[in-house]
Design goal:
Length: 205
């Protein structure tokens, strides 16, 4: 709703409805999880794609969340492959302790590039979707896309049967996955706290 696509979740209005995966709303939780995994990290680099409307919302959420935990956030804006490479190259001169990668269709499509660069720079990183953890990222926390796609299919069926999108409330994701890649953690020399492993929905060994 913060992006202005619908009037309200309960009454979308217009011709748009669907499933909200609450990506920006989980910003603070992701930052807390990264801090729990790497409590010694105080300087966090955060990748945001300024080409997507959610970028500004994520930025505001990061500023509030980082202040509450006492972390220093360095915002890195990247909307192309070249800008991703340039942002990582800047770490040679100003190295952060960890990396926060915001939700973005670009970052999802460039997940291998991001994970390889994070590994090369020996940076613990948290991502928004399990796809990035499966590609070698350290940790991800976000809505289950499988569950979201199932709901989209249900709505598509209802609309094809005559329902109007304006009458279908926007569904918010209720299933979230915390995925930890223990292989990557060992490569980075990290020991994942037992309490964090216990909370994980999946641990990649």
């Amino acid at each position: 709703m913060s992006l202005g696509l619908v009037t309200s979740l309960a009454q979308p209005g217009g011709n748009v409805t669907g499933v909200s995966i609450l990506s920006t709303e989980l910003t603070a939780k992701r930052l807390e999880l990264l801090h729990a995994l790497v409590p010694s990290a105080t300087r966090i680099a955060a990748f945001i794609n300024p080409g997507e409307p959610a970028g500004d919302v994520t930025l505001r959420e990061l500023q509030v969340a980082s202040g509450a935990i006492g972390l220093q956030i360095r915002i890195l804006r990247a909307s192309t492959d070249r800008e991703i490479d340039a942002a990582f190259a800047s770490f040679i001169h100003d190295r952060p302790d960890a990396l926060f990668v915001a939700g973005s269709s670009l970052f999802l499509s460039r997940r291998v590039q991001l994970c390889l660069l994070a590994a090369f720079h020996h940076l613990p990183a948290i991502f928004s979707l399990r796809d990035l953890t499966e590609a070698g990222g350290l940790m991800s926390y976000g809505a289950s896309l499988r569950d979201a796609y199932r709901q989209v299919g249900v709505y598509a069926g209802r609309i094809l049967s005559g329902a109007k999108p304006a009458d279908l409330p926007v569904v918010q994701s209720s299933k979230f996955d915390l995925v930890i890649n223990n292989q990557t953690a060992r490569m980075l020399g990290l020991t994942v706290p037992p309490q964090l492993l216990a909370r994980a929905d999946e641990v990649i060994e």
